[in-house]
């Protein structure tokens, strides 16, 4: 099931498989964690319109445009969260999405090491890419988890599991 047309947000991702569809409570917990990290002082930034305004209004350090695309393409994780802009609907996928059939989408690893905000204004405003203040440690966690998943996959392919 690689699309969520029956869910609020109509999020579609490729490549990859949908590992989990997030329920309302999970979305709320993730949204609060994301806002705590990336929008701690966001008064007056119109986040009720778009959460990515935190980046377009300079509320959190980020890069945009081609620099954001390049940074996003360099990130690896074993799982990726994909959520609509207000983070009321989302899913977890096993590959970094390269094709999102929806605007105003956030993609990030489960530990929030980084975040990518695709906007309906791409090219004009966005996309935006930002890193967590503890990016180095969190990125190392993601790399270790990815390596572990690759080892498990190789073990299965060799019939060891």
Descriptive account of the structure:
With 161 residues, this protein is α+β, with helices and mostly antiparallel strands. It has one domain. Helices cover 32% and strands 21% of the residues. The protein is built from four helices and nine strands. It has helices spanning 24-38, 53-56, 66-74, 135-157, and strands spanning 13-14, 18-22, 63-64, 80-84, 90-93, 99-100, 105-109, 114-118, 128-131. It has a seven-stranded antiparallel beta sheet with strand order 2-5-4-7-8-9-3. A two-stranded antiparallel sheet has the order 1-6. Strand 7 and strand 8 (114-118) form a beta hairpin. The longest helix is centred in the last third of the chain and has 23 residues, at 135-157. The protein is globular and about 55 Å long. The chain starts with 12 loop residues before the first strand and ends with a helix.
Question: Can you summarize this structure?
Answer:
The protein has one domain (13-157).
The domain tally reads 1
Shape, principal axes of CA atoms = globular
Instruction: Describe the main β-sheet briefly.
Output: 7 strands, antiparallel
Strand order across the largest sheet: 2-5-4-7-8-9-3
Q: How much of the residues is beta strand, in percent?
A: 15-25%
What share of residues is helical?
Answer: 25-40%
Low-confidence stretches: 1-10
* Backbone CA Rg: 16 Å
Compute the number of strand runs.
Answer: 9
What's the end-to-end separation, in Å? 26 Å
Structural class: alpha+beta
